[in-house]
Amino acid sequence: MGGLIRALGGRAVQALLVALLVGAACFLMVRLLPGDMAYRIAASRLGYDLVDSQAAEAVRQELGLDRPWPLQLAAWFAGLARLDLGVSLASGEAVATALSIQLGHTLLLSAAALLLSLLIGPPLGALAGLRAGGWWDGTLLALSAALRAVPGFVIGVGLMLWLAVAWDWLPAGGVGGWREVILPALTLALGLAAASSRVARDAVAGVVAAPFFGFARMKGLSDAAAFRRHGLRNAAIPVVAYLGLQLVMLIEGVVVVESLFAWPGIGHALVHAVLGRDIPMIQGTALVMGLLFVALNALTDLACWLLDPRRRAA
Amino acid sequence: MIRLRKKRLLGAGLLAAVAGFALLGPLHGIDPLRQDLSAALQPPGAAHPLGTDHLGRDLLARLAAGARLSFGFALLAALVSAGTGTLLGLLAALRGGWAERLLLGLADAVQALPALLLVVLVTAFAPGEFLPLYLGVALALWVDFFRIARNTAASVLARPQVEAARLLGFGPGHLLRRHLWPEVAPLVATLFAFAAGTAVTTVAALAFIGVGARPPVPEWGSMMTELLPYYAEAPLALLLPALLIFLTVLGLHLLAGRERG
User: Fold this and answer.
1) B200 CA to chain A: closest CA distance, Å?
2) How far is A247 from chain B (nearest CA, A)?
């Protein structure tokens, strides 16, 4: 129990670091970007035709942009602590409202991608691990090494042109029913499976070579029964633990893949906000993606703890 | 051992091929930015060995310029992050105390965010410019070098022969040269190849989604964005940048020679 609490405490510190990092970066951005921030905010409220220096001055007074910067920084973080993420400079919509919709889309895509990757990667890897050194082991090694050298967006473009354009099986982008999820999820899943198949392969090869597995076979269990009872859970631990490392790939992939397939999630919104210099939106999206990363990591910690009784005892 | 050697040779060969391709650009002698709308989307021919893009720009010249850009970027970003990270890691292990704790905290802070997210945040300061891209990628990559250098060095420093060398009065210079560097260098070299590969994909991916290098800069990822609408007319023009990215990253991974992590 102590180990779990320590791990989750570490994740809480990480969440705090994410908030500090994103907050500090966005605050710096406001100070460093060329042009008058008050003028830009006023223009986003009134439109560029109606804005003048008086309106900008009013905004400056209202938001306290003329105060010394340590005070502003404190106010900025106080807002962050109240989860007051401000209003998008581009759309005028509250950032929190926009994020709550986008988060749903991103979670759906991530869950579909993880599920697909677990259906593809570990089974193929396990087959390779059961006959380590065989032809399938070599083939899978070459396949996964090749796939890991292809960036996600290239996989995405390839799948889009093949499955959506040439064969017309699936829609090339957008959001709606389950058909729209498949292509972006598959793009992410292939990249993830390339890595997780190797982990599963090594784990299964390790289990098969272990004395306890040899004993299970010797006492007369069939290959399948021995693997199901003595192999599966032991091999699953590294695969699940590795999921934590894969989350980095997943979150990074989401930024690119959502943009490619016009999937209206947080990654897509982040890219748009960066291009539009919509700082409250950059802050909101980066913050939520970072916190999502931490939350998923905490879940992985928990899953490892549940799977592995040795950790619970420690 | 022999298989590892073969893998490394194959990787070096792939990289040499792409580097040779990069040198074709100056030999070919066509400006990668020169447009000729009357010769748009031409198939490979005598005047344009690899054809032209939608604005009639020579593809060989653009792809070769993209290779120089990617190689230069990857090399510089990986060098900066490897230099900084290794140096700080060795320093942390040798000095210990508050300096080590500070650096470890800094590394934790940087890795609290996924690397690409960090790079996107840094590029947000000036989208489309290269300096923030360099800074962002180096900022994300130095941590791996720092951790590996510090952890390896710390385990080496705990060994009895190091203790003996210290008691004999050898200074940190000797420890660094004779005990730490031989252990740390091969790991840093492996990581360097992976880091360069990450730099290549990051630059291409960011350019592809429009946050990094922007048209008309001849960058592989941004070339793919530009040519995606013309996939039917010029499939080769879309395929070639993708192929070059793949060969470069594969070459770097093979050169690294061992599994990551």
Assistant:
1) 9
2) 9
Regarding whether A213 and A129 lie in a shared domain, the answer is: yes
- 0.90 exceeded by the pTM? no
A263 with A131, same domain? yes
B215: contact with A, CB 8 A cutoff: no
Would you call B239 an interface residue with chain A, using a CB distance cutoff of 8 Å?
A: no
User: Do B36 and B54 contact (CB within 8 A), yes or no?
Assistant: no
Range of the domain at A201: 102-275
ipTM: 0.85
Per-residue pLDDT for chain B (261 aa), expressed as one digit of tens each?
457 788 889 999 999 999 998 888 777 778 888 888 887 778 888 778 888 888 878 888 889 998 998 898 999 999 999 999 999 999 999 888 898 888 988 888 888 888 888 888 888 887 778 888 888 899 899 999 999 999 999 899 888 988 898 889 888 888 888 888 998 999 999 999 999 999 999 999 998 988 888 888 888 988 988 888 888 888 888 899 999 999 999 999 999 876 543
- CA-based R_g, chain B, Å: 22
Q: Are residues A17 and A122 in the same domain?
A: no
Residues 6+ apart with CB under 8 A from B248: B14, B15, B18, B67, B70, B71, B74, B197, B200
Q: Is residue A137 part of a domain?
A: yes
Find all residues with CB under 8 Å of B17, minimum gap 6, and list them. Answer: B247, B251
Please state the domain count of chain A.
2
Whether A123 and A264 map to the same domain: the answer is yes
Is residue A36 domain-shared with residue A151, that is, in the same domain? no
